[in-house]
Amino acid sequence: MTVQSKIKAADTVTKEDLEGLSPQQLRAVFREGRWSGGTEGLARGYAQANLIILPKDVALEFLIFCQRNPQPCPIVEVTDPGSPMITQWAKADLRTDLPRYSVYKEGVLVDQPTDISEYWRDDLVGFLIGCSYSFEQALLNAGIPLRHQDENKIVSVYTTNVQCVPAGRFAGPMVVSMRPVKRDQVVRAVQVTSRFPATHGAPVHIGDPTLIGVDLNRTDFDTGVFELAEDDVPVFWGCGGTPQAVALASKIDFMITHKVGHLFVTDKLSEAVAAI
Amino acid sequence: MTVQSKIKAADTVTKEDLEGLSPQQLRAVFREGRWSGGTEGLARGYAQANLIILPKDVALEFLIFCQRNPQPCPIVEVTDPGSPMITQWAKADLRTDLPRYSVYKEGVLVDQPTDISEYWRDDLVGFLIGCSYSFEQALLNAGIPLRHQDENKIVSVYTTNVQCVPAGRFAGPMVVSMRPVKRDQVVRAVQVTSRFPATHGAPVHIGDPTLIGVDLNRTDFDTGVFELAEDDVPVFWGCGGTPQAVALASKIDFMITHKVGHLFVTDKLSEAVAAI
């Protein structure tokens, strides 16, 4: 019995069932409502993406905001206004093909459904924004361990005092993820992640967290915190939480995102979209 | 007498007068209407950019088009809708700070002024798109000669049969520039230009022109044609002529661009914005 037929035979599935499935197969499982959990570790090697859906009347400003802040907000695809269809990084329907969503009205979380068909409107535009899962695999491939994976935590995420370049109503501080890197691997970590501009690219800061307004023991998010060893250097990358936080703070009346950790799985191999 | 004071003393200037001027000084000369010629070779080392100004009602679709076609259309900056001010790649006014413009109404060229203040409207959005001058300097630095410079021609530009990924009303074939590269330098040419995604990046095609619908002896533009030697390989890069051609073909009712060869000179060193 293949993995796929095993899946087909079951009403719901476990994360182990999903291992080895292709991005297309995974999106089918999500679409059928048989998996509503996280996507970390699934379809290894394929890029995953953050989702933000906004009304068309703020889409131009939002796209300009992302263009001005490519490290936290690397846009990988934008739908045609009014269309929920992804055509470049996969052939997929944003209303159904993620495992779970967050729906915000007037800046307040109102629902976390597994399907947003009932929320879709013909004035919405979908934005896919690169996710750090891609460069994390590249770090592992280069022999740079990921502490949060080793400790079975979510990567640490912080709000900095570094202001993004504003665009219209979109303004606010950059959100970053932090990974402890051994001092003698910091240069390699910069080189490796620079190859992936579509998934946040190179670090935005290395070393002293206080220079960007971060206290490593206080995250503004529900994420892990690390004990730093003597030879650990904190390395900070732009985080896809930035555009969500900025959009929420701008009091957009309606927004849908992926639920944290429940990302869009693309058909693009991360290595196939590396800069070089 | 410094170069600058020599400039200040003259009503108009020659291209030699402009050599050694900074981007800021050059933009001042353009703003004062004392140079309306081309910008090739000026402010060496600094990125130059193509300009397209469009009405806001098509700006979102145009930006999505560029996002989907990053090699011919690498957006480096977008103005706030209604504003002619560049704030990131320079502090500059798009109405005055280029040497010469082309103004199109209903797809027809109606004027080529040195100042577009009288044409500015509060619904316009300015787009700067990276220009190949940046990676050309990098090719020269790597010992890869540029035939069109050696022969004192404009680089060859062709319309291909490769369709861009469309977005709304924006659709059409990719326009490319071609440079003959010696066979043993082709790999290095790919490596060198890959570092500059903001200025068209890596080639889109190497070798047989017929595979992309190009006859090397027939350009659709007023550009040079090269005799290829036995060991020459034609190498094709995405060209900033693409978004202009696509915007014109889409019958936008109003558009302003730089005049061909009369680009926006930015304050960014090309090497400072290289991918790695």
Basic shape of chain A: globular
- Helix tally of chain A equals 8
How many discrete structural domains of chain A?
2
Low-pLDDT sequence parts of chain A: 1-6
Q: Report, as a whole number of angstroms, the end-to-end distance of chain A.
A: 40 Å
Structure classification of chain A: alpha+beta
Architecture overview:
Two copies of one chain form a homodimer. Chain A is an alpha+beta fold and 276 residues long. Chain A folds into two domains: 3-131 and 244-273, PSTPO5379-like (3-Layer(aba) Sandwich); 133-240, PSTPO5379-like domain (PSTPO5379-like fold), CATH 3.30.2040. In chain A, 23% of the residues lie in helices and 26% in strands. Chain A is built from eight helices and 13 strands. The first copy, chain A, has helices at residues 3-9, 15-18, 23-31, 56-68, 133-141, 147-150, 186-194, 241-249, and strands at residues 46-55, 75-78, 85-86, 92-93, 101-105, 108-111, 124-130, 156-163, 173-182, 205-206, 232-238, 254-258, 264-269. In chain A, a hairpin with a 5-residue loop joins strand 3 (85-86) and strand 4. The termini of chain A are far apart. Residues 1-6 of chain A have low confidence and may be disordered. Chain A binds chain B through residues 56, 59-61, 63-64, 67-68, 75, 77-78, 80-81, 87-88, 125, 165, 167-168, 191, 194-195, 197, 202, 275-276, and chain B through 56, 59-61, 63-64, 67-68, 75, 77-78, 80-81, 87-88, 125, 165, 167-168, 191, 194-195, 197, 202, 275-276.
